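Internal ticket - ligand job 463, pyridoxal-5'-phosphate:
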Amino acid sequence: MSITQSATSADDLRRLANDHLWLHFTNMGGGQAAPIIVRGDGCYLEDVDGKRYLDALAGLFSVNIGYGFGEEVGQAALEQMRELPFYTNWTYAHPRAIELAAEVASLAPGDLNRVFFCSGGGEAVESAWKLARQFYQARDGLPPGQRYKAIARDIAYHGTTFGALSINGVEPLRAPFVPLVPEVRHVSNTNRYHRPPEETEQEFTAFLLDELERTIQEMGPETVCLIHMEPVQNAGGSFIAPEGYWRGVRELCDRYDILLSADEVITAFGRLGHWFASERYDIRPDIVTCAKGLSSSYAAIGAVVATERVMEPFLTASSMYTHGITFGGHPVMSAIALKNIEIMKRERIMERVLGNEDAFRRTLGQLLELPIVGDLRGAGYFYALELVKDKETRETFSDEECETLLRGFLSPRLFEKGLICRADDRGDPVVQISPPLVATQSEFDEMTGILGDVLAEAWEQVH
Ligand SMILES: Cc1ncc(COP(=O)(O)O)c(C=O)c1O
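stdout (structure tokens):
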């Protein structure tokens, strides 16, 4: 059968999906037909059978302006298609990539002024590590292979290409692909919930920074080129750093002359109420990686943003960042990202997120009354609920319990009730909530209502 336009009936789509479409991170022999999403508006999606869902995950933490701007963004894409459907950033420039680079530089904190485009988040992480490796060669005349190691954090997700996967701290995703790219070590993340209850915030910060410094010393400071961390770590459930952590990480990077890279693939472009979360937490990174929200996922575009200091060694006639991607800075993708930023400004997305974040947190906070909800953490429009077996002792569920609870019950039940969010157990079991940034109190209420019902049912199931 030849499919040139779009498949017509729901049954046709299901059959064709079953026969041809290989889904990501999906057990294809699982026997369950994948939901087929056909349209979206605002914070809502509709499936092929006409059922509506509140998307409390914004696609993949990424559709920041929601699904309702297709017409306007599409017009910008169409105009760009007419003018110049493609050209490359390999030695050439074109207006949209230039304008987008200037726009991103103007929104990024400090002198993060130099923008290298790629096609997504993993590629941005990959590019950041390669950039850090070459930075020391270009700056110090070091031969390759001397300063190449990276440090990241446990359970942190940074993508799936080999470099990004090696930086990734999610063990089950790494395991099938060893040997990975040498050499990355992972330090503790900033999950405070399972630390000793008597530990103060200052003590926690000191513990984390001591461990980081010890790791740098053990690896050999002169061999480490990059420390790569998210401002708020997603995997494990919206871990916010304790007071003094970022100041300390910056100091260690300065002391040992290591580049600090903030992975803002999720956190940039409004998720935490700022264009870049590095600004909110005063992280002062040398490199930022971003993607998803840059175009609100209306386009496949990511970027590495570097400071003037990082760029400087590459400004001599004899040095070059030896890296390139065909679609990096694609004119249509750039036009879409520019339109997305224009919409974000016009709709006052940053102000809205900051203005609503307390109400959002308060609304979700009602769920803490449930016996299964141990912790609510996060900021902006980026939250996680940690599920526990025993609230007093903070005892978590076993692997088998997680399997039945999260994959067996919670995910399908939430979906059945019309709510898309993520039940995840890459660390301890959490429900992640990260809606489009246009969500308002009525969506906060709706998602909290459904979550409340389903989590109460889940508690009955495990007892
Ligand atoms: C923090 C972070 N970095 C990198 C990535 C990888 O992005 P992509 O899936 O676009 O390759 C993700 C994806 O979720 C992410 O959350």
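Auto-summary: The chain has two domains: 35-65+356-462, 72-346. DSSP finds 15 helices and 17 strands in the chain.
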